[in-house]
Amino acid sequence: MSATNAPRTLENERERRAETFVAGYLPPDDLVIDPSLQLHTEHDTDIDPISYEVLRSKLWNVNWDHQETIRRVSGSQVVVFGYDFNTSIQTEDGAGVCFGPGNLFFSGCADLVVKWTLEHRSMNVGIGEGDIFLQDDPWIGTNHQMDTAVYAPVFWEGRLFAWVYNVIHQRELGGVEPGGFTQQARDVYSEPTFFPPIKLVEAGRLREDVADAWVRRSRLAGS
User: Fold this and answer.
1) Contacts within 8 Å (CB) and 24+ apart, 171-179
2) Fewer CB within 10 Å, N- or C-terminus of the chain?
3) Which tens digit of pLDDT belongs to each residue from 191-202?
4) Domain boundary assignment for the chain
């Protein structure tokens, strides 16, 4: 899959984004990304076996450290004991590179989330170094609203090189029943409110308004 620098307008952007909220997101063959976001698309297809194994092992261990850090600091039993989460590394345009040994289904949605973000956030609000995004929208890429993705772009020499991604089952995000499993729900709007990708951290600085909006809907907001 490649990226295109086709002309974009805010009106066209809103129309395309609104379609995904109704019908779900299906990435096009060529991602429509704002030209201001430069990608590191160069790659070497001829690599010797030893270098390949060194790089593969290094990526695996970086991703494993990511997963174990989350598991050790989490206060959620479904994460610590149930491994109801996963971590992964994606290429600059969202292709999977490395997945953790947790719940693989979670990282199976990572490509959709990253591609949607590239298409619908590169123009506005922008994707920059030090940014972190947050999302739990099933129409974009997750199982249900409690499975929340937090992910960040990685830049090298001023261009987008990769994405670091995790998704975790959060215990309580609101809805008509504690815990989010609503047996009598007539539709998804009876369950916890879902968020399409939003920027939680901008240039290394936490956006307190976004963080407050996220935790305020939870019965465990103060814990």
Assistant:
1) 171/76, 171/78, 171/146, 171/220, 172/218, 172/219, 172/220, 173/136, 173/145, 173/146, 173/148, 173/217, 173/218, 174/217, 174/218, 174/219, 175/145, 178/219
2) C
3) 888 899 999 999
4) 48-216
Q: What is the CATH class of 48-216? A: alpha beta
**Residue 79: φ, ψ to 5°:** -85, -50
| Residue type present at position 98 | C
- Type of residue numbered 105: F
Asked whether the CA dihedral 25, 31, 36, 37 is positive or negative, the reply is positive
